[in-house]
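User: Can you recover a sequence for this backbone? Please restate the input before giving your answer.

Assistant: Of course. Working from this structure:
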């Protein structure tokens, strides 16, 4: 009977060691899970901070893009106006040249500075 009690005592010691091992493993797993959650939360916070920074940067870029677009449109409008003015001045100069080159060309300088086609009675008479 002594061997039975020894066996029983041996099983009890083995069971205690197994229980203690399980308990240490549980504690270790809980601690590991806690560290993992903390790491995940820290990463999420870092991502939120980065997202805020990127949103601010996007807003600044969008604002700059809008300003550049408006500036571009203003310049295009100014270019169109200058081209129209150039065409008008070129036409005006051509008319002035024609009026100054030949008196019989049918052009006359008007008081507002423009050249205008008119019949010249002194040229049409023979």
């Amino acid at each position: 009977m002594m061997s039975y009690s020894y066996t029983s005592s041996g099983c009890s010691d083995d069971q205690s060691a197994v229980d203690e091992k399980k308990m240490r493993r549980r504690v270790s797993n809980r601690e590991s899970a806690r560290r993992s959650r903390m790491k995940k939360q820290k990463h999420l916070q870092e991502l939120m901070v980065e997202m805020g920074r990127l949103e601010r940067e996007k807003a600044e870029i969008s604002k700059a893009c809008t300003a550049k677009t408006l500036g571009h449109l203003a310049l295009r409008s100014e270019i169109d106006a200058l081209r129209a003015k150039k065409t008008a001045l070129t036409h005006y100069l051509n008319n002035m040249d024609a009026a100054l080159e030949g008196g019989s060309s049918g052009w006359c300088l008007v008081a507002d500075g423009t050249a205008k086609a008119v019949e010249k009675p002194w040229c049409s008479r023979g």
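That completes the design. Residues 1-7, 120-126 have pLDDT under 50 and may be disordered.
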